[in-house]
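Long-time lurker. I teach an intro course on protein structure, and each term I like to show students one example going from raw sequence to a predicted 3D structure in token notation. This year I'd like something fresh instead of my usual example. Would anyone be willing to generate the tokens for the chain below so I can use it in lecture? Attribution to the forum is fine with me.
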Amino acid sequence: MKDMALKRTDLPGGLRLPLAWAKAHERQLRWIVVVVAIAVFAVQWVRSAVNVQDGDFYLHWQFACRFVQHKLLYADGLHIPYPPFWAMAWSPIAALSLPAAKMLCYPLSAAALALLLWTLDRLTRRQLGLSSTRRFWATAAALAIASRFLVRELPECGPNLMLLALTWSAIYLWTRHRDLAAGTCLGIGAALKCTPVIFIAYFAWKRQWKLALTGTAAAAVFSLAPALWQGTADYERHVRLWLTHLSLGTGQVDPTVGVLGPETLQNLSLRPAIARWLMHLPPGHPSRLDQPGYVEFLDLAPALAGR
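-- Reply from a regular --
Happy to contribute to a lecture. Here you go:
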């Protein structure tokens, strides 16, 4: 597919010179973007090494240590939104000190991001038909738009990026008629966090039975795997605790209250983010954005905003 570039005569006069300059210096601009990306990655790596207890990675490490040591995973409310398999998946880092674990795991976030970008490129290359130049700048623009999320995700060593990469890898494998591998990827993701279950349900709705059944079976196997280490009785107790706290959190009518209590601004999930603009939050509320530009469009009741 040929590039659908605008003709010079179609451009406003004020844009012709900057665009011509950018085209002439495109290679140098690419290198600037690459250097900035590497610098951001390095700064976040150093930041994660200095502030080892910042973010959720510290909680993942604690969770893994408790699993290895046969302790109660959810004591003091630690990681109650996560199933026991989450602790098992992170258990290898329990053999390391917190600083060493964080430093060694940090590159995993970059690897997960690279896999995600490669997968999305493979899925869309034929449909978009972008040249290598446009593909680079489209990727750079997408990363810039998502930078707020990435800057937070990188110091936590990318667990959400890994889940996203697993899910899109499953979709890519499905397009290559590798349903068993695709279902396994979705099953692992679903055992770690509930969100990929939506994709298993979607493929079942589309009558992709092989993938849906493989995903369901893999999710069940990996979800039950912690019982091999914890023992049946201890595993059952943990699952009961997890489901109890999960039901209490998801049953909240107030969208600014989650499984862990009032949602903070650091929680970038969709439900509390939208709720901040739909309902009145008093000054000092963890979900309130105390900035001059903050506007409450509506003053909805929590139950109505939660719908």
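Some talking points for your students: DSSP finds 15 helices and two strands in the chain. The first strand starts at residue 257 and ends at 258.
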